[in-house]
Specification:
Layout lengths: L9 E4 L10 E7 L16 H10 L2 E5 L10 H16 L2 E11 L1 H12 L6 E5 L5 H5 L8 H10 L13 E6 L7 H12 L6 E5 L4
Parallel strand pairs: 2-3, 2-4, 4-5, 5-6, 6-7
Antiparallel strand pairs: 1-3
């Protein structure tokens, strides 16, 4: 990485049909939080996602994101770098790149999509939060101005106009014990004010 000269891994899956010359769509998948995650033991691409990619002709890329950075700051930089690397190595259709994330990765997906809506053809968020103040139950005005500006720059709740034209699909389990379903209800409701086409699905009883 040019920022600090460190080696940063990412996973990729390329379906068999990639041997053809046609440009292919790509899903960039952001993993969730794990306190045990490190650069050595990290290796995760959901089997169901691999099956979908093989059957439907999608390339997959999964950035490590420096473990648990919430894909903000340097973590976001790494995601964008992985996309560049995949475009150099494979014939990726730049107009069909989908950003997807689960839990912590869902929050990162919200943030990155709000920062770079023109880079993605769609956004998929699974069990992700998107509003710091709602999450922490903290009034914005209770924080000093410099903290407000830092938080506002990293969470989509303050960047809603950027999501107005991006296809968005969100899913959350009603029994999620880590990220309460109210988080998803709140941020999808906020996004719906600028993007009425957002699709939100709740899985009853699932965590």
């Amino acid at each position: 990485d040019p920022v600090d000269d460190s080696f940063q891994p990412f996973l990729r899956y390329v379906p068999r049909r990639a041997l053809r010359r046609d440009a292919m769509p790509m899903i960039v998948f952001l993993h969730g939080y794990s306190p045990a995650l490190n650069i050595v033991n990290w290796q995760y691409l959901p089997e169901t996602l691999i099956k979908f990619a093989e059957e439907n002709g999608f390339i997959l890329a999964a950035p490590f994101g420096r473990s648990n950075t919430d894909y903000q700051g340097i973590g976001e930089h790494d995601v964008l770098r992985v996309i560049e690397e995949m475009q150099l190595r494979y014939k990726v259709d730049p107009d069909r790149i989908i950003l997807a994330g689960i839990s912590m990765g869902g929050m990162g997906a919200w943030t990155i999509a709000a920062h770079h809506p023109d880079a993605f053809a769609g956004l998929v968020v699974l069990s992700g939060r998107g509003d710091y103040y709602f999450w922490q139950q903290t009034p914005r005005e209770s924080l000093p101005p410099y903290k407000q500006r830092l938080i506002d720059a990293e969470f989509p709740a303050s960047l809603l106009p950027n999501l107005a034209n991006l296809p968005v699909f969100c899913m959350h389990g009603t029994d999620d014990q880590i990220i309460d379903v109210e988080e998803a209800r709140h941020i999808t409701g906020a996004v719906r004010t600028v993007n009425p086409g957002i699709r939100y699905v709740e899985l009853q009883g699932d965590d």
